[in-house]
Design goal:
By secondary structure, the chain is of the alpha+beta class. It contains 35 helices and 19 strands. Among the domains are: 147 residues, no CATH class; 123 residues, no CATH class.
């Protein structure tokens, strides 16, 4: 059968993608039939044994058969207790068989119902399986049966080979590891991922509780590291530790070390992080480095000198932002790395220095068995524990994180400077230590491969070869820009039940698998190492320190600090010098331009590395996207504004390049609409922010082409904006209401249909009449509904829209206003539930009420009341737009057009204190927290730059908070 496009199998692809990337795999995949083993089970007496899990005896029977088929009895003399060794090894095989066959067992038993008792049915069915020697089962589920047997036979042969290799090298093992040759093998634990036909790293247990690690691959990475450490320790006062290594070419042994989590030392971790950074390491997460009594020791070094991910295109910029983050200290895996998924509230920190506590759990689901010992068995997704995955807002935890961060930076800086001052010696040591080393190239993350392996064990692909091939071909989706040879090799290895494994040489630019050429690398690991060493500098050190800080603060809550500004801090005679503002603007423009980087391809606009949101569950170091909230779009708009004000052509040119490229992409349609829509259609979370910025840039410069392109771009997302979606429509950041407001303000002749307005009014009433989860704020609360419909009402004077706005006002007064006449964020009895911010607090409410006032629905007194509330409470002292002092200032400034007298005091108060140029620059120079490290608009440097530009020229009306230009 030819592979064909099926949306259920390839939901991420359209037909043209399938034809281009998946269909070419067919000629190879169709040759991957069930690997006939010629293996036949014998009679078994295991059926009466007590079972520890469902189908245990059935799987034991298979395991016993595999043992008989592969075991060489001559090896018994090397085993301490052959009977116990067999029992332990067969249990390993049994568990592998269970993981492969359980879903087919669960399906098949339901077709085998012989009684009215589900427990009896289980006994009858499992007895039949064993007595029938699985003949009927293996014919029906022939695909999974043969794949399972093939993997088990490979694993069993590997264990036999391991024992033979150990025996052949006992003298060398004794000399290197002090394990006497007379000590027999007790057990071999090889339960990890398998590669290269069933082989896996194994813990070999000998008599007298002695242990050794056997690695069925080249360990020249570990050997080279050991040599390097010996040389490097002549340079440093605090010595590095390394494993003992016995390198035997195609395979080798390393010493077994015990973990000691109580011996954590973040300064030592910083030194390891620096060394791994210089060696272009990857995958050095918590399971590949151990805390030990001798400090942190890497135990798996096959991914030293890891090259950039292979892509087909020769157009890719080599030193782009994605490559920079991949080759940064964050890319080593030593720093905290939070893994999560959009569809899950679960996360886990896999970084070596990350925190794994009661709130840590893998976001990737696993199976669990329900009613396993009956015919009612169900194989279902394991329900993950409900945990609090919110950002940490605990002062003690914050101190702990900052302490860890500072100690790691100290160690990182110490070794960095040592290497920088002895660069040539270090390069010489590395080249000598790793000459001709064989290392590993990781093309896709292991969990991606595991997902494919798991889905292949479903009952349908277990019996239908065509479906199995279709599901296997999904691996091509992960590598649509990669060479087809890589994908074909992945398919073959996955079909064998292995995690795909690719080898590279330190000195060469070839990628191999199973000793066969697969692809070329753009540069050899050695060449990339030399490039890295030529790039190290004090400037690079500072960049890496910034990334370290970003990684550590990823799970800390946004800083919210409110303080009452004292009258003594305000001075009526205070005057901000124009030169001070210009110098402050230059501080931020220099900071932004010095850090600007190329995107992956030349036709794409430049970008930055900074904090990137993980589905609202934390911020990790990454390449900034195009969203208006924290992406690359806002900084370029601010640079354009600053360039015009300061008459700096270099800033104008940088901004022009961005907006010209955006315009060209829209005009030539060199975008993937699916990816555009996936990025979001909210005002701050997707394409609308780009459109607003392009239009605004056009108005600032008089560039009509940018403006017309922006208007035309709205048609790309029009359907998506107005269609029914699960995402909250009335959310300023990610919902579509903000995007529609943008369009209303940009496009004079645009208006919604009355049918759509009525639908949204009904939706709004459902929300405001709800008792659960309501908040009052502009970004995520009911004042966003007021704001949205006030903008609509300005053009379309609909009575029911007016009524809705009045009802929202009544709800805010009756349900959100406390005894002190202050509007709270949530309906609760908690104290300190009042905020001054634009996003959740009174500043945002002020904007919403002002829009209601401008269209004649709300009174002037209602607006003045909110201004007075802001006057009476502590204000944010964090100079950012979203939930800081700059957002309060911008909101007041917007309202001051009609309330100049009422806002004057507050604006002057802020301008002289937390919104002054000196205060802002000092805050960002401090370097503590995520905001100071972010180039972004709403919670970073760009917001400050916008504010300073508007201080310099009071006529500038551009505001991302109100979408004014």
């Amino acid at each position: 059968m030819v592979l064909f496009y099926k949306k259920e199998v390839y939901p991420e692809l359209n037909k043209s993608d399938f034809k281009e990337h998946i269909l070419p795999l067919y000629d190879f995949i169709k040759e991957l039939s069930e690997p006939f083993s010629g293996f036949i089970l014998e009679d078994s007496d295991l059926i009466e044994r007590e079972e520890l899990y469902p189908y245990h005896n059935s799987c034991r029977t298979i395991a016993e058969g595999i043992w008989r088929y592969t075991w060489d009895t001559k090896l018994n003399k090397y085993i301490s207790n052959p009977s116990e060794f067999k029992e332990a090894t067969c249990e390993l095989y049994s568990q592998v068989a269970f993981s492969y066959l359980i879903r087919s067992f669960a399906k098949d038993i339901k077709l085998f119902k012989l009684s009215d008792d589900c427990n009896t049915d289980y006994e009858i069915y499992t007895t039949f399986l064993v007595k029938n020697k699985f003949q009927e089962f293996s014919q029906k589920y022939h695909v999974i049966w043969e794949r399972c047997l093939n993997l088990l036979i490979n694993r069993a042969k590997y264990i036999v080979e391991t024992i033979k290799i150990i025996n052949q090298n006992r003298d060398k093992i004794e000399k290197t590891f002090d394990i006497p040759s007379s000590n027999k093998i007790v057990s071999i634990n090889s339960s990890g991922d398998t590669h290269n036909k069933g082989s896996s790293v194994s813990v070999v247990n000998f008599e007298e509780e002695l242990k050794l690690i056997y690695k069925p691959r080249s360990i020249s990475g570990e050997a080279g590291y050991s040599k390097l450490i010996e040389k490097l320790n002549h340079l440093v006062s605090s010595k590095f530790s390394a494993l003992k290594v016995l390198d035997l070419g195609r395979f080798g042994f390393t010493s077994y070390i015990e973990k000691n989590e109580m011996n954590k030392n973040m300064k030592e971790a910083g030194r390891i992080a620096a060394l791994m950074y210089f060696l272009n390491s990857s995958d050095m997460h918590y399971s590949n480095i151990y805390w030990t009594n001798d400090g942190p020791i890497p135990i798996d070094l096959e991914t030293l000198f890891h090259p950039k991910r292979i892509a087909n295109s020769n157009l890719e910029n080599f030193n782009n932002a994605y490559y920079k983050i991949e080759k940064s200290v964050y890319g080593t895996g030593v720093l905290p790395i939070h893994l999560t998924k959009k569809s899950s509230d679960i996360s886990v920190d896999v970084g070596f220095t990350g925190v794994r506590d009661e709130n840590s759990n893998s976001p990737f689901k696993t199976f669990k068995i329900e009613d396993g010992f009956t015919s009612n068995i169900k194989v279902v997704w394991q329900k993950q524990n409900e945990i609090d995955n919110s950002l940490y807002n605990d002062k003690n935890y914050e101190k702990f994180i900052y302490s860890n961060c500072n100690e790691l930076i100290e160690g990182f800086t110490e070794l960095y400077m040592t290497i920088l001052n002895n660069k040539n010696y270090f390069i010489k040591c590395v080249l000598e230590s790793f000459e001709n080393s064989t290392l590993r190239y990781i093309h896709n993350m292991t969990y991606r491969y595991e997902q494919i392996l798991r889905i292949l064990t479903d009952s349908e692909p277990s019996k239908n070869l065509d479906i199995a091939h279709m599901l296997l071909s999904r691996i091509g989706i992960l590598s649509m820009t990669s060479n087809k040879n890589i994908v074909l090799s992945e398919c073959k290895q996955l079909w064998n039940g292995d995690i795909p494994y690719f080898s590279i040489s330190f000195d060469q630019n070839t990628v191999e698998s199973e000793n066969k050429f697969i692809n070329w690398l753009p540069k050899s690991p050695k060449e990339e190492f030399i490039i890295k060493m030529n790039s190290i500098s004090l400037e690079d050190l500072n960049r890496q320190i910034e990334i370290i800080k970003l990684a550590f603060v990823a799970k800390l809550a946004d800083p919210h600090r409110d303080e009452k500004i004292l009258e003594s801090e305000t001075n009526d005679n205070f005057c901000i010098d124009k030169k001070t503002i210009e110098n402050s603007i230059s501080y931020f423009t220099n900071s932004l331009t010095q850090r600007i980087m190329n995107d992956r391809y030349n036709h794409l606009p430049k970008t930055w590395i900074g904090p990137v949101s993980q589905y609202g569950k934390g911020w990790t170091p990454g390449v900034l996207g195009y969203d208006l909230y924290s992406g690359r779009t806002g900084p370029f708009l601010a640079l354009l504004l600053a360039g015009k004000l300061l008459k700096k052509q270099n800033l104008i040119d940088i901004a022009y390049e961005f907006f010209d490229k955006v315009t060209k992409i829209f005009e030539e349609k060199t975008y993937d609409l699916r990816n555009v829509l996936i990025s979001g259609t909210g005002a701050f979370s997707g394409m609308p922010g780009i459109i607003w910025s392009l239009d605004t840039a056009g108005k600032i410069t008089g560039n009509s082409k940018w403006q017309s392109t922006a208007l035309n771009a709205f048609t790309l997302i029009e359907e998506e904006i107005t269609k029914e979606k699960k995402v909250d429509f009335f959310d300023m950041i990610s919902g579509n209401s903000g995007a529609i407001v943008m369009r209303y303000k940009i496009q004079e002749n645009y208006s919604l249909t009355e049918k759509f307005i009525k639908e949204k009014v009904e939706e709004a009433y459902k929300i405001i009449n709800s008792k659960e989860g309501l908040s009052s704020g502009l970004a995520h609360g009911i004042s966003q509904i007021m704001y949205f419909f006030a903008i609509v009402y300005k053009k379309q004077k609909l009575v029911y829209v007016k009524d809705l706005i009045e009802n929202i006002h009544k709800i805010i007064k009756s349900r959100f206003t406390n005894e002190q006449n202050l509007i709270e964020i949530y309906m609760s009895q908690e104290k300190n539930n009042v905020s001054s911010s634009w996003c959740n607090g009174l500043a945002g409410l002020l904007v919403a009420y002002y829009e209601g006032y401008k269209v004649g629905i709300l009174s002037k007194d209602e607006v003045i009341d909110i201004i007075k509330q802001i006057e009476s409470i502590p204000l944010s002292v964090v100079p950012i737009l979203c939930h800081g002092s700059l957002g309060i200032y911008d909101s007041l400034k917007y309202v001051s057009k009609d309330f100049e007298e009422e806002t004057h005091y507050l604006l002057m108060k802020l301008q002289k204190t937390t919104c002054s140029p000196t205060y802002i620059v000092n805050y960002f120079k401090e370097g503590k927290g995520r905001y100071t490290l972010s180039p972004g608009l709403m919670t970073g440097q760009t917001g400050a730059l916008f504010h300073l530009c508007k201080l310099l020229d009071d006529e500038i009306n551009v505001s991302p908070l109100t979408f004014e230009v």
